[in-house]
Amino acid sequence: MNQYWGVDADPTAQGRIKGGRPVAVLDIGSNSVRLVVYERHARSLTPLYNEKTACALGRGLAQTGKIAYENIDRALTAIQRFALVSKLMRAGTTHILATSAVREASNSKAFVDAVEEIMGAKVTVLSGAEEAHFAALGAISGMPGFVGVVGDLGGGSLELSSIAGGTDSTGETHELGVIRLQDDSDVSPAKAQAIARQRLKKSKLMDGQGGSFCAIGGTWRSLAKVHQVLRDYPLHMVQHYAVKASDMLKLCEDIVAATAANKPYTGSEHVSSGRRDLVPYGAAVLIEVLKAGKFDTVVFSALGVREGYLYGLLDDDERAVDPLMQTAEQMSVLRSRSPAHADDLIDFTAELLTTLGIAETPEETRLRKVACYLADIGWRGHPDYRGEQAVDMVAYGSATGVDHPGRAFLAEVLAVRYMGLKQKSMSQSLLALSGPTMSARARLLGAAFRVGYPMSAAMPGVLPRVGFVVDKGILKLHLPGDLAFLDGEHLRGRLDQLAGVVGIKLTDVVAG
After folding, report:
1. Residue 6's pLDDT band (boundaries 50, 70, 90)?
2. What is the distance between the alpha carbons of residues 348 and 455, in angstroms, rounded to a whole number?
3. For the chain, what is the largest distance between any 2 Cα atoms, rounded to a whole number of angstroms?
């Protein structure tokens, strides 16, 4: 037995949140069946395990009214494996959600009974309105401030909801799933587009008022990935990826046109084989949605019905928690040398900004606090690489509640904190996403961290005892008398760098 842990007693790693009991969600969709096991049921969800199997339960359903038995067999085989995974991971609760294929098929009862026997849990068959509601909650859970229309495109249906003020209304369901359209159009994306146009006329949400449209669903996520590849975008993640509606419209029209000409659409090689043939139908639906709604922006969400369902089970206080802040605090607990030091760093940087006369917006304050919680997550890495490793955890991590410019800001703070102001190893296109103003703020915070850490050794109690003042154009760092020995060439060099970021030429360290 390993001297640090014993699987017989508890298989849980020490790098997981203590006291957290995993929660599992089995999502039975019209195209795929997916199991996601989350570390715990909280405002910020961290997947422990995520796997899907393409079962195409919705294939042929519109014509026959039944789920094909070979597809049922494929799904039940996958679900047997998922049941074992859920058991091995000691999930405290397993939620099973089924959507349009199961709710519409005349032969779904036997399938549902078999799933319940395998999983030992009840299957919740969502109505179209419920599916729209939980998809909207999923978008809200990952983008709390989103206002606009949410669309969740599955294999059998498209659910639409309106979001404002952190809640949803006017849920709709339309027979516009990509598998259904592929069947209904006789495998013609151009014809599918005409069908989508006609069926969307029933929508009360496509009122042409513009604003933002949030796209959810695997096929639309594939469209986002194609768009990212074609524009050489530095972050290959879908969550909170925002683009002009006109740009996405052009891509979708090109995809439909290429398919109509029996040619592979540009970027198809970057789409999974199981999704590649469905993308043109997702493009056809998105064209008609964007035209009917006259939307200005498309924002993609990787969170949908599963996350929305769990979000809906939280109480009001838990829903009000900032998901990004919770993620940062968890990372600090799991990876920093002293989580309490982050609180010192928050006050230390706040005082510095006040001294420099720099005001913050609420969002800037929020991101600064998050950066302080993340500031020490890379200490276990090799000195030559810990900067890149820390930046990767932030820029490419699974945190929600942050847009791509915000990720770039946090990445640059950590890049400067670990690699200095002259570092060149980071992707400049990634850092540029934050914009010049936030980039300058990131460099200031990173430089402040580089002053604070040598004094405190990442431990709490020191930073509250030091302070800054600007006197006659000189940035002065005040040390208490019993810490006067901290004054030295290394600290003064870091202070000079910090002052240089804000255009102050002279610095001093004052003890006593």
Report:
1. very low
2. 12
3. 85
Query: Which amino acid, residue 404?
Result: H
Residues 6+ apart with CB under 8 A from 180: 30, 58, 61, 62, 155, 156, 157
| Cα separation, 195 vs 189, whole angstroms | 10
Sheet holding 47-54, edge to edge: 47-54, 32-38, 23-28, 93-98, 123-125
Residue 287's alpha-carbon distances to 201, 204, 283, in angstroms, are 14, 17, 6
Residue 7: Cβ-neighbour burial (10 angstroms; 0-12, 13-18, 19+): exposed
Residue type at position 486: L
Domains and CATH numbers, the chain: 23-125 (3.30.420.40), 129-303 (3.30.420.150), 323-461 (1.10.3210.10)
For residues 426 and 411, the answer to whether their CB atoms sit within 8 Å is yes
**What angle is formed at CA 375 by the lines to CA 470 and CA 393, rounded to 5 degrees?**
145
Mean pLDDT of 89-116: 94
What's the pTM?
0.92
According to DSSP, the β-strands at 212-216 and 32-38 are unpaired
Amino acid at 403: D
pLDDT tens digit string along 355-371?
999 999 999 999 999 99
Report how far apart the first and last C-alpha atoms of the chain are (Å, whole number).
Answer: 54
Return d(Cα 156, Cα 168) in angstroms, integer.
22
